[in-house]
Amino acid sequence: MSRTDAILARLSQLHPKLIDLSLDRMLPLLDKFGNPQDRLPPTIHVAGTNAKGSTIAYLRAFLEAAGKRVHVYNSPHLVRFNERIRLAGTLVDTPRLDAALEETEAVNDGAGITFFEVTTVTAFKLFADTPADYLLLETGMGGTYDTTNVVKQPLGTIITPVDYDHQGFLGNTLAEIASNKAGILKRGSKAVMGLQRDEARAVLDRAARRLGIAPLWQGEDFHGSDEDGRLVFQDSDGLLDLPPPALPGPHQFDNAALAIAASRHFGLPVDEPSFADGLRRVSWPARMQPIREGTLRALLPESHELWLDGGHNPHGAAALARTIASMQPKPLVLIMGMMNTRAPEDFLAPFRDLHPTQILALTIPGEQNAHNAEEIAVRARAMGLPAKATTSIETALETASGIANARVLICGSLYLAGDVLARNGTVPD
Fold first, then answer.
1. Could you please report the per-residue DSSP string of 272-296?
2. Distance in angstroms (rounded) separating the CA atoms of residues 62 and 274
């Protein structure tokens, strides 16, 4: 076990629950550090169900193309914990991360606090101690009681599309979930809203009005669309004719447009050439990521495609299915693993019309709360889909190699995506 893993293991034992949404435990710890959350660069706070990470990836690409130093806070990580904390453009190095985690552990002195809370305190201290021009801050879950929701006056807030996810923590209706996400809105901070279903839109609108905020709404105040392979964006400031996003999928035109609108509405110093450069260079691992080389890729013939996506809820699955449908037709093989907090049927439903040639189910390695491979296969077959259980990702790929000219998509979980990247030797940087 590495030093980092040993520290993280100790921190995970400080509270009996992995998730216990509250700010009461971390505020005293932040106070002991001199409240670093009050000493951050101008911050853009992002909540929502899907597209948070992609939206932040675009914002980072735009700002860095404009020559700005950008902090980023994302979760969860895929391969290494370092991926959660990007300092002025670079992932935090391991010695500095270890020292910061150990300092937080010592100052906390054994007090009960969740893993995400204590590591978020560590991130805030690192962000406050490192010069940068902006901080892009992603919520972990929800908004109101999310550990990131201690920044009193962000430069701006973004709420990406809200859908059903984490109902056991955020509420059982779309209105309840949207109300929780709306908790990041702050009086005096501008806001931009992604495409929303009517029920969520009504809740977000009321929350914004109570705070005196007039948000920009995607689909009304700004638009972005694929026109002849170009991203055409329009808002009250005019029209931009831009190259397509480097991230594949029709939904990425929406995500990129949301980030462009936020950049303009929040007054970020990004001009049209920087938007264009950022769109060409943007990257976001395990979001319809092509795997072109590596240990696992070598198990497939050259004629096969291999894609990896960590989407795990119905909204993400629908976007993923639309992306596959937009491609040149090829035999489709899904290699799928899921956590048992998700229903395989909900994830697979958007793929039924694509008539996958084969679904190869597996149990996510090292995850006690993963669906058993046979259970996924049984439930897929009950939907009329061809499915069978496999014992490992390697076995699944070897099976897929026997299907001529196949498009192989590994999907269903970020935990599975992280395991695949590690086994393939593709570590995010």
1. HHHHHHHHHH---TTSSEE--SSTT
2. 6
Tokens representing 84 are 């959660």
Q: How many helices (H) and strands (E) does the chain have?
A: 15, 17
Band (166; pLDDT cuts 50, 70, 90): low
Q: Which residues contact 16 (CB under 8 A, 6 or more apart)?
A: none
pLDDT exceeds cutoff 80 at 326: yes
Whether the predicted model's global pTM rises above the 0.90 cut: yes
What is the set of domains in the chain, with CATH numbers? Answer: 3-281 (3.40.1190.10), 289-424 (3.90.190.20)
The angle formed by the CA atoms of residues 270, 231 and 330, to the nearest 5 degrees, is 135
Q: What angle do CA 167, 312, 82 make, to 5 degrees?
A: 100
Q: Is the pLDDT of residue 168 over 70?
A: no
Q: How far apart are CA 306 and CA 304, in angstroms?
A: 7
Q: What is the DSSP letter of 229?
A: T
Q: Which helix (H) or strand (E) holds 120?
A: helix 115-129
